[in-house]
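In this notebook, the sequence line spells out the residues, with the fold written below as integer tokens. This is how one looks.
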Amino acid sequence: MTLEILTPDKKIYEGEVNSISLPGTMGGFEILNNHAPIISTLEDGKVTVRGTGKEEVFFIKGGVVENLNNHVVVLAEGIFIPE
């Protein structure tokens, strides 16, 4: 599936992934390939992106996620990328 992580300033990530774990307002959840369509609000927290053989972690400051037809878009209010 395709993932985009966007902030008001720039595009943080774009690419093919196997799964993404997100900090939902009602609790954490994971989106896998062929997941049912969903729109959810996000809290401050860790977003874990798993691709082929690698894992990346981003820390977001709230936002919204939408998944439709294996295209996931995370609209984050802000982001901190650990070094």
Summary: The mean pLDDT is 94.
